[in-house]
Specification:
The complex is a heterodimer of chains A (about 290) and B (about 270).
Chain A: H1 4-37, H2 43-50, H3 61-73, H4 83-114, H5 116-131, H6 134-147, H7 153-176, H8 181-189, H9 194-205, H10 207-229, H11 238-247, H12 251-282
Helix pairs in contact in A: 1-2, 3-12, 4-5, 4-7, 4-10, 4-11, 5-7, 6-7, 7-10, 10-12, 11-12
Chain B: E1 10-23, E2 26-39, E3 43-47, H1 54-61, E4 69-74, H2 79-84, E5 88-91, H3 103-114, H4 118-131, H5 147-159, E6 165-169, H6 177-194, E7 197-202, H7 205-211, E8 214-219, E9 224-230, H8 245-262
Parallel strand pairs in B: 3-7, 3-8, 5-6, 6-7
Antiparallel strand pairs in B: 1-2, 1-4, 8-9
Helix pairs in contact in B: 3-4, 3-5, 4-5, 7-8
The chains are: A mainly alpha (about 290), B alpha/beta (about 270).
């Protein structure tokens, strides 16, 4: 609890900066309006009017908080205006993509560790795959899969998996290789098979690495899903809220959706962090 | 057990054994023309300075290194065949227990790998825990045990599948002297009770003399055997045997052998 003070100070500082930025960035419109109406703008008017616009350049924190609150609690969860509804659409695709990406990442890592040809050939492609801007490739994936008759959450999940497999591959390769020469020699003295060494030594030893990469992977998954929602024509999901917000200049809606996405990502990372603590403690691997 | 030990039945035989490592700085002769016969029931210590090839020789017996010349047989087989037929248990310098397994779980590990039936696994674990005096610690995790107890657990693990040969690579090197004395005493008792053939690598002259029936003195560059001493000490060895005349004489001979092998480099 001793760390609560500094955290609150930093939070307050960010809010203060944000308010100042909102006043500064929204001032132009206020001054414009006032000039058109031929009235003078005093500092008090400037502050109140910049922080209460309907479509501000930069919404103030309280406006975003209200937008977020209305989106979550002010609507029926089935409503197209509900952030819970859109959040669930995004979350379901994220979870599916994360599952596909993590499984693919683990399998690729096992292949890389056990097969010399894969060791030499897979990693450069995995790295190359991450250098391609996902924004450029996402619409193509959606279009191609649509033409194959695959619609719904699967195309989004595949984009999400595309982003999340990479940290898992990198982390798991390191983790599976973490047993030292002595431990591997020991397995040899018992004439253990490759599968036995994998199951009894390499996989358990890689758990700390797995959880570290899953945390990165789940956040990347969410980003992938949101990017995948942008070119679908803004039907549903947090990505569509961002897109429709930008179509209609609804900056508060954009920011509320952004914060909803951030909260979702934070909860997912925290969930994996909790799983990590419990698992590693039970395995005697907690640091 | 000791009555059943037949005289001079060779278990490990090395003839003109050579082992050359290819390194980036060129070839390194780790073992040169090593000739040695280890009989059933022997307790053989390998002693010498770093780089004398004592660990390499032990690893060659275990088929963890592959000789580049000469012959080496274990139980009449090649080392690799012997490894596959579970001829030996190997104790490394570090206990190397898995933190996610209990002590019993760690000892069960080689049994699982070798496919022993579950009920037999439990019996064997209980028996070897008793043998190293760790009964009652089976459900503990490695971090709950001291370093000496962990090393005893790793010896139990090497004994669990009833290999005739126990290969130990400086198993007590990382422990303090008091713990080491106690474990040496226990190891002798265990050897006496089980009649195993033991190959033991050490840096310590008193440890080698106290434990062994045969002391192999080695020297570096190239790694070779400079002296093989058959100990006249009796099988029963209380700790204070280290003050006896015989003990001091053997220790002296080992020291001389080490000095001779080292030439004028010391």
């Amino acid at each position: 609890m001793r760390s609560l003070g500094p955290v609150l100070v930093v939070l307050a500082a960010i809010c203060a900066l944000w308010y100042l930025a909102a006043i500064w960035m929204n001032a132009a419109w206020v001054n414009d309006q006032a000039a058109r109406e031929g009235r003078e703008v005093f500092l008090v008017d400037l502050v109140t009017e910049t922080l209460m616009q309907e479509r501000p350049v930069l919404p103030a924190p309280h406006q975003v908080a209200k937008g977020l609150y209305d989106g979550v609690f002010g609507q029926a969860v089935t409503s197209k205006r509900s952030l819970v509804y859109h959040g669930w659409v995004t979350l379901s695709a994220t979870l599916l993509g994360f599952a596909i990406g993590s499984a693919a990442g683990i399998l690729l890592a096992v292949g890389i560790v056990y097969n010399r040809a894969m060791d030499l050939s897979v990693m450069p492609w995995a790295i190359a795959s991450q250098t391609i801007p996902i924004l450029a490739i996402a619409p193509m994936i959606i279009v191609v899969l649509n033409s194959l008759g695959i619609t719904g959450i699967v195309p989004k999940a595949i984009i999400s998996a595309y982003l999340s497999f990479f940290p898992v591959v990198v982390g798991m390769v390191k983790g599976l290789r973490s047993p030292d020469a002595m431990q591997l020699d020991q397995m040899r003295t018992w004439n253990a098979s490759g599968m036995q060494t994998l199951g009894k030594l390499r996989l358990p030893a890689s758990m700390p690495y797995l959880f570290a990469s899953l945390k990165v992977g789940v956040a990347a998954s969410l980003v992938g899903t949101i990017v995948g929602e942008l070119p679908t024509g803004a039907v549903a999901g947090l990505g569509s809220r961002l897109l429709s917000g930008s179509y209609y200049g609804q900056t508060i809606q954009i920011w509320a959706a952004l914060f909803a996405a951030a909260l979702l990502a934070a909860s997912l990372v925290a969930l994996i962090g909790g799983l990590e603590r419990v698992t590693l403690k039970r395995m005697g691997l907690a640091r | 057990m000791k009555d059943t030990i037949s005289q001079a039945e060779p278990v490990i035989v090395a003839r003109d054994l050579n082992l050359v490592f290819q390194t980036n700085d060129g070839p390194v002769q780790a073992l040169k023309d090593v000739n040695l016969t280890i009989n059933r029931g022997d307790f053989v210590s390998f002693i010498g300075p770093s780089g004398c090839g004592k660990t390499t020789f032990l690893r060659a017996i275990a088929a963890l290194e592959h000789p580049t010349g000469g012959t080496l047989t274990v139980n009449g087989m090649t080392p690799d065949e012997a490894r596959k037929s579970r001829a030996y248990g190997y104790v490394f310098q570090a206990a190397g227990l898995y933190p996610w397994r209990t002590i019993a779980g760690n000892i069960r590990l080689p049994l699982e790998i070798m496919g022993f039936p579950r009920s037999e696994q439990d019996d064997r674990v209980a028996r070897v825990l008793d043998l190293v005096e760790l009964s009652g610690f089976g459900k503990k995790f490695p971090w709950q045990l001291s370093g000496g107890m962990q090393q005893r657990a790793s010896i139990a693990r090497a004994l669990a599948f009833d290999a005739d040969i126990l290969l130990m690579d400086e198993p007590f090197g990382a422990l303090d002297e008091i713990v080491r004395d106690r474990l040496n005493e226990e190891l002798l008792k265990l050897w006496d009770r089980t009649g195993k053939t033991i190959g033991f690598v050490t840096h310590s002259i008193p440890e080698a003399v106290y434990l062994s029936t045969k002391i192999v003195v080695m020297s570096p560059r190239p790694g070779r055997i400079t002296d093989v001493i058959d100990s006249p000490l009796p099988r029963e060895r209380p700790l204070d045997i280290r003050d006896s005349r015989d003990f001091i004489e053997i220790a002296h001979r080992v020291r001389e052998g080490l000095r001779a092998g080292h030439g004028d480099e010391v």
